[in-house]
């Protein structure tokens, strides 16, 4: 019988993080659930008093991350699966965003994930195994108006994650950038920072709202079985798109980008290199 694994999940109080924590606990695993505010996890802790530890953590604070990881590793005697899920959304046009908003956003969505990875690697390396699942986005392959900084942070995390996968595979550690599709995580309700709107972009904003519609997307719990399967694969992919519709959309975006490159191939080839 396979022994229970220990998961560290950041951003675990709501949305995808909460769904992943619930799925792991239901499978008999142990979970350290980290979040800025762990109060929403009280009901889950009551149901799983032996297998769930709630850990207050702001991932943007590097020293706090390292202290929290030490505690997380000590609680159940090590770590096996790390899910870098903490994040938020900076909604607004590039021109509208303030320096403070941009830095705060990337401190969580990019640097926070890097701090967690740096902190857990020594523990996983000592065990000679482990999984790091970096929750990124299907939109990380290209920019989209009004969510440019969100895409930028996820694209940076994709790139760093692929480099990290190459660096740590020699230690038995597997890293996957998990490119999530659109799920009903409540991000727009509780995890969004909005810029002050410049009327110059009102027409574009209206067009984007019409294009996106009112659909909230599927429930986060519907993605949890895939995450559980991914965490158990002996040779997982370094990048994985989550969601059939999202998979099709990413392929279409890739085709459009390739066509754009080919349309300007002659200009590209005028320069050496």
Automatic annotation (TrEMBL):
Keyword Oxidoreductase: yes
Pfam family, one: adh_short
InterPro entries: NAD(P)-bd_dom_sf, Sc_DH/Rdtase_CS, SDR_fam, SDR_oxidoreductase
Keyword Oxidoreductase assigned: yes
Alphabetized UniProt keyword annotations: Oxidoreductase
PROSITE patterns in alphabetical order: ADH_SHORT
UniProt family annotation: Belongs to the short-chain dehydrogenases/reductases (SDR) family.
Entries under NCBIfam families matching the protein: PRK08263.1 (NF006114)
Protein name listed in UniProt: SDR family NAD(P)-dependent oxidoreductase
Organism: Streptomyces amakusaensis
């Amino acid at each position: 019988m396979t022994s229970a694994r220990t998961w560290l999940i950041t951003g675990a109080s709501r949305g995808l993080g909460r769904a992943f924590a619930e799925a792991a606990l239901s499978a008999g695993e142990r979970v350290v659930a980290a979040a800025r505010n762990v109060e929403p996890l009280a009901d889950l802790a009551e149901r799983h008093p032996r297998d769930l530890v709630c850990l207050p953590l702001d991932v943007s604070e590097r020293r706090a991350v390292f202290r929290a990881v030490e505690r997380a590793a000590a609680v159940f005697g090590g770590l096996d699966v790390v899910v870098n899920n903490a994040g938020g959304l900076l909604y607004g046009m590039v021109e509208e965003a303030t320096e403070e908003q941009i830095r705060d956003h990337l401190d969580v969505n990019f640097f926070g994930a890097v701090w967690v990875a740096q902190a857990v690697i020594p523990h996983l390396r000592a065990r000679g195994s482990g999984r790091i699942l970096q929750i990124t986005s299907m939109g990380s392959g290209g920019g989209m108006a009004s969510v440019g900084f969100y895409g930028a942070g996820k694209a940076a995390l994709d790139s760093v994650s692929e480099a990290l996968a190459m660096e740590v595979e020699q230690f038995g550690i597997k890293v996957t950038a998990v490119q999530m599709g659109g799920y009903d995580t409540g991000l727009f309700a509780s995890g969004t920072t909005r810029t002050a709107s410049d009327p110059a972009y009102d027409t574009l904003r209206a067009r984007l709202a019409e294009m996106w519609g009112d659909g909230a997307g599927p429930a986060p719990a519907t993605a949890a079985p895939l995450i559980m399967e991914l965490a158990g694969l002996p040779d997982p992919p370094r990048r994985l798109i989550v969601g059939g519709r999202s998979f099709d959309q990413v392929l279409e975006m890739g085709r459009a980008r390739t066509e754009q490159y080919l349309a300007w191939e002659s200009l590209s080839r005028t320069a050496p290199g």
